[in-house]
Write a structure and sequence with these properties.
Strand content: 15-25%
Distance between the termini: 52 Å
CATH class of the largest domain: Alpha Beta
Structural class: alpha/beta
CATH topology of the largest domain: inorganic pyrophosphatase (n-terminal core)
CATH architecture of the largest domain: Alpha-Beta Complex
Order of helices and strands: EHEEHEEHHHHHHHEEHEEHEEH
Number of helices: 12
Largest sheet: 6 strands, mixed
């Protein structure tokens, strides 16, 4: 039997997968990638008797691969908070999927594990810009510990954004491996040097983002367009999260020039966290969840259509 662990390379995916590993799901094979690399199940070649644990990627975006694995006889456990569509009724699939705007995949894993490694879920929720949910989950922690977990979650999330692993400071699989000795993220923060590198990179990239002004402004929100640079690809998600927190009544979109079009991150208003997934699914490579979604490749010719759809979705 081969154990496959498949997860998104952001804070939520890595922390969800790490909780499963701490609980005893020791993987033989790990499959992950950058934040936008979500069709991960296509890389899994499980057969009858194999176990596949999946965290923080959309079932709907991996439906054909999931059906293939179930038909082959593999058993699949799925933990996620993204749009799933119809969930296959198969005895070999255990789907723990909750698309509520105030949860994330790590909190779903945390509930399944009855809070055994909750601090990892707290860090992940902070990384997913779910500060209220993170504070609720970490209600027994003091402010210093919460601040430390907030920084960890945001830095891990920042590290996941890029066109390819070459854009990142740390490959997601390598970061996942670094977590292995640590049952508590506070011990990881104290014992591993990679956070200093991420902190410095984040500081430099965000300084560039803060120098920008909106390229388009609508009554409902603002759209920023970032240049075709590695720093812009790294920072687009965390910059969008920051914009959402600082102006919670407004929607935001952060577009990064790819040369042929744009990489898009959308955040619904924090005060009304819905509509981002519907907006992005209106474009060929779009998806995500109600509060936060994205488009992997928006053609340049579709920019005006996107701007109109953005204004209509949140207006």
């Amino acid at each position: 039997m081969t154990r496959w662990l498949v997860f998104n390379g952001d804070a939520d995916g890595i922390c969800a997968a790490h909780q499963l590993r701490l609980a005893g799901f020791t993987p033989d094979r790990v499959v992950t990638g950058v934040k936008r690399d979500i069709a991960l199940l296509a890389r899994v070649e499980a057969v009858a008797g194999d176990r596949v644990a999946v965290a923080d990627i959309s079932l709907d975006a991996n439906r054909a691969s999931l059906n293939r694995l179930l038909a082959a006889g593999a058993e699949v456990d799925w933990y996620d908070h993204h749009f799933a569509g119809d969930i296959p009724a198969d005895a070999r699939l255990a789907a723990r999927i909750d698309t509520d705007s105030e949860t994330c995949s790590s909190l779903i894993v945390d509930a399944a594990l009855h809070g055994r490694f909750r601090n990892w879920a707290v860090a992940a929720a902070f990384g997913d810009n779910l500060h209220r949910a993170a504070r609720a989950a970490g209600a027994g922690l003091d402010e210093a510990a919460l601040a430390t977990l907030l920084e960890l979650g945001e830095l891990m999330n920042y590290n996941a954004y890029g066109e390819s692993v070459d854009d990142l400071h740390e490959a997601p699989e390598a970061l996942f491996a670094r977590l292995a000795p640590y049952a508590d993220p506070l011990a990881f923060i104290a014992g591993d040097a990679c956070l200093a590198r991420l902190r410095q990179g984040h500081h430099e990239d965000m300084a560039r983002a803060h120098a920008l002004v909106p390229a388009h402004t609508a009554p409902c929100g603002d759209v920023f367009i970032l240049p075709r640079e590695k720093w812009a690809r790294r920072v687009n998600g965390v910059f969008a999260n920051e914009l959402a927190r600082t102006a919670p009544a407004r929607a935001h979109a952060v577009l990064v020039d790819t040369g042929t079009g744009y990489l898009v991150s959308v955040r619904a208003p924090k005060a009304a966290p819905r509509g981002a997934d519907r907006l992005c699914r209106g474009f060929a490579t779009g998806g995500g969840r109600a509060a936060a979604a994205g488009i992997n490749a928006l053609p340049a010719a579709d920019l005006q259509r996107f701007l109109a759809a953005f204004a209509a979705s949140f207006g």
